[in-house]
C-alpha cells in the first residue's frame, strides 16, 4: 500500500510570503515595513497559536520591542522589562529545544557548525532570571546580537531549506507545475551569493582605479564619474535579488556589501603604521560610502533607498575597531584606522548631509555604545566626537560621562592628601611579566598584586577599635 504524502500546514501562504516577511523584519531603514511584518506575525499567532516556529516568533517579539523603543513612548524601566522578556523568552525557548535540534539536525544546516548561542546571550538571560536586571544599553546590545544570530541560523538559511525540500519533492514527482517558476527563482538566490560577491569585489577594484585617476587629474573633490559608474554597475549586478516590493534592498545584500567593503585591506592604507594620516583613504572611499548611505542615484539625481543605513555602517566600524587582536590596543594601527573612520563620518563636513538625513540621534547612539563598553578606542572616539564643534546638544552631560569613564571626577582636585613618596618608591610589584607583542615590537606588562597606598594608617592583625570589648 502506498504511503500518503505528508502535508505541513503553515501560517504563510507560500514561501515567497515568508521571504518577503524576512525582508521587511530586517528593513532597518523603514519602520512602517517592520511594523507591518510584526503585525502579520501577531495575526499568524492568533490563527495558529502552537504552529509558529520559535525563531520566527522570537524575531517578531524582539523587533516589536525595538520599534516601541524607537517611538520613545515608554518609560525607561518599562523598556528594560520588555527587552528582558523578549530576550529571555528567545534564549530559554531555544535552550529547551536545542537537544532536539542537535539530534534531528536539519539537512540544510551548515556542515561542521554546531547550533549554539553566544555566551553573552546566555549570561544576559541568567542575569535577567536570577540576578539584577541588566541595564537598558546591555539589553539593547543583546537584542541586536539576538537578531544577528537569528539571521545567521534561521532567516539566511530559508533559501537553502527551500532548495533542499524542492529537490526532494522533484525526486518524488510531487512538485506542481505552478511552483516551478518560484523554485527556479529561489535557486537563483542561493547560487548567486558567491557570484554577487565576486562582482562586488570587481566593482570596487574598478572604482578604485577610476577614483585614483580622477584625483590625479584634479577632478577628485566629489568623485562623481567614478561613483556614477560604480552605482550603475551595482544596480545592474544586484537587481536580480531585489524584488522591488520594499523600499530598501534585501538585508542579505546589505550584509554582503558591508562584509566586502568594510575590509581593512580595502578601507585602510596598505601596511599602515600607527599615526599615519587617513586623508587618502577618506578622499578615495567617502564618495562611494555616501552613495551607499544616502541612496543617491547619480544618473537621475533622485533619491533611492539607502543600501547601508548610516547607523549600520557606524556599528560595523565600531565592531571592527574593537575586534580582538594580537597587538597591544594602544599600538594597533588597524584599530586606530577604524577610529579615524568613525570620527570622519561623525564630524567631517563631507558627511554632514548623511548625518542630517537620519537626524542627530546617530551621534547619541554611537556615544551610548562607546560608554556602554568603555574600551580604550571607544573612549577615544567619544573624546573626538565631544571635542568637535558640531555637537551642540547634551554635550555637557556626555562630557561628564567621559570624565567618569576615565576615572576623572571633579570633586577630588582640591583635596589635600598626605602621600609618603619614599613609601611609594619602595612599593614592590609582585609577579611582573612581559608579553611580547606582534613581531616583538610592543611589550605589554601584566602585573600581579600591587601594594596599594591609601589615606589610612596600618594596623596590626587582630586590632580592635577602642570601645569594643570581647564577648563574655
UniProtKB/TrEMBL annotation:
One Pfam family here: Las1
A Gene Ontology cellular-component term: Las1 complex
Superkingdom of this protein's organism: Eukaryota
Molecular function GO labels: endonuclease activity
Protein name: Cell morphogenesis protein las1
One GO BP: maturation of LSU-rRNA
Organism lineage string: Eukaryota, Fungi, Dikarya, Ascomycota, Pezizomycotina
